[in-house]
User: Fold this.
Amino acid sequence: SAAGVLVCLLEYPRSKRKKGSTMERCGQKYMTAVVKLFGPLTRNYYIRAILHAALAVPAGFLLSTILGTVCLGIASGIYLLAAVRGEEWRPIEEKPRERPQMGDTIRQPPSAPPPRPPTDARKKQPVEVGG
Assistant:
């Protein structure tokens, strides 16, 4: 059960994508601080692959934990493949929100009037009642 807690702590915070944006999980910023605390031990995917493989070995001796063993083995393979491709875990850091400058929020009034329909179309059409 301690191994499960360790895997959950390690896996819960999402890594920042190279391209695009990444949605942060609920409460991830607290877990990210824990993962960042261990530095290269948790960022390096080679180490994660070895850790998952090492945790899978003792779980493979019991029939009741064979499914967890398979999952840890697959995760180990995925981390190994990601490490070979040069990926690593990067924290999602919020960018400081820039406050808008006062001059940028004031807009100039329009220089041209809004478009209007021709005068013929503006005349009211008589409304026919009944028919």
